[in-house]
Design goal:
Elements (H helix, E strand, L loop, with lengths): L4 E3 L8 H10 L5 E3 L13 H7 L9 E2 L1 E2 L4 H13 L4 E6 L4 H4 L11 H14 L3 E9 L6 H9 L6 E7 L10 H10 L4 E4 L5 H10 L3 E6 L1 H5 L3 H5 L7 H18 L2 H14 L8 H8 L4 H14 L13
Parallel strand pairs: 1-2, 1-9, 2-3, 4-5, 5-6, 6-7, 7-8, 8-9
The structure holds flavin mononucleotide (FMN).
Length: about 325
């Protein structure tokens, strides 16, 4: 039996449109995590944040919203709002490595001030009606910070602890620190979710057998590259050219209904970049799609890609050189 798979939140990519379209073409995802909302002093959601969390935009999907803040009052405000919308779980982001986020002590910046993190958790766990899960890295600068973080997380009833076993300083480079994840398996009390560099069904199966305490796997870039990855891991059909084309076209159509043309073009150029690994020796049309200056040019390149090139035998995310 395969483990449940969660689709990782990816700001700017896995918005409500993407999630709905993905769910209507592929199986295998138990929960979609919504990219973070980041409350500010005036306590209103931006229109983009609202569009992402509105229940009517997420119908038929199991979704978990995420909050990025170091201010306990802001977290509680957001958690209450989300609870009133019907959400039973809210995920706290202590992993975002972006410089603009960490400079404000948010995301992975919270890992720099462990007593502050503990106070924050104390405050939110005593005052929030929802279940709280945490998505974290293993430290700010060094893997050695992780034992202390596990101790802190162990003081609270986290509904799950999602671990991306890299430090903030590593962003997404190098390989995840498997030994740190093993340490969590040995000492963390919360149900554990593994996240990081699972790009093939075999890698998912290996994670499942290496870490029997893992309750679910979270997949990010691997799903963008091969949207059938979770489906294949769960024993379903591998990616085919027909399903990829149908997904791609539906995504473009749905973006057209939701966004102005320039946004659609930007989004679709990213999609072309993400699915590049699905084709053999298709650099020419892929480059044309990525660089297209209009939707007409984009569609032309994509038609050539699907008509003239073969689907790769093992479509799988590859980090840029
Ligand atoms: C473009 C992009 C946006 C991301 N946005 C978020 C986010 O909003 N919240 C979050 O917790 N992680 C975010 N992440 C991190 C992913 O959720 C995930 O932890 C990371 O990609 C590692 O998993 P992977 O190796 O399966 O891709 C983002 C990653 C990328 C590449």
């Amino acid at each position: 039996m395969s483990l449940p798979v969660f689709f990782a939140p990816m700001e700017g990519v896995t918005d409500a449109v993407y999630r709905r379209v993905h769910h209507s073409h592929f199986t295998g995802i138990a929960q979609y995590y919504i990219p973070f909302i980041s409350p500010t002093q005036n306590l209103v959601l931006t229109s983009r944040e609202r569009a992402n969390v509105e229940p009517q935009h997420n119908q038929g999907l199991r979704v978990v919203p995420q909050v990025l803040t170091k201010n306990a009052d802001h977290f509680i405000w957001a958690a209450q709002l989300l609870y009133d919308m019907g959400y039973e779980e809210v995920n706290l982001n202590t992993g975002c490595p972006s410089g603009t986020v960490t400079a404000k002590g948010k995301g992975a910046g919270m890992l720099l001030d462990v007593p502050g993190l503990e106070c924050f958790l104390e405050s939110i766990f005593s005052r929030t009606p929802v279940r709280i899960s945490v998505k974290t890295r293993i430290g700010y600068a060094s893997e050695e910070e992780f034992s202390r973080l596990i101790d802190v997380f162990n003081h609270f009833p986290l509904s799950s602890l999602i671990i991306h076993p890299r430090t903030r300083q590593e962003f997404y480079t190098g390989t995840p620190h498997i030994s740190a994840y093993a340490e969590a398996c040995a000492h963390a009390k919360a149900p554990l979710v593994y996240n990081g560099n699972l790009f093939t069904a075999d890698a998912c199966r290996e994670a499942e057998t290496s870490f029997p305490k893992t309750t679910a796997l979270m997949l990010g870039r691997g799903m963008l590259a091969n949207p059938a990855l979770a489906q294949t891991y769960a024993g379903g059909a591998p990616l085919s050219k027909e399903t990829l084309r149908a997904f791609h076209d539906d995504l473009m159509q749905s973006y057209h209904e939701a966004y102005p043309k320039n946004v659609v073009l930007g989004r679709m150029r990213e999609v072309a970049k993400n699915i590049a690994c699905c084709f053999e020796n298709a650099d020419k049309p892929l480059k044309a799609a990525r660089k297209a200056s209009s939707l007409a040019h984009y569609e032309d390149a994509i038609s050539r890609l699907f008509e003239d090139y073969t689907l790769s035998a093992n479509p799988c995310f590859r980090a840029a050189d």
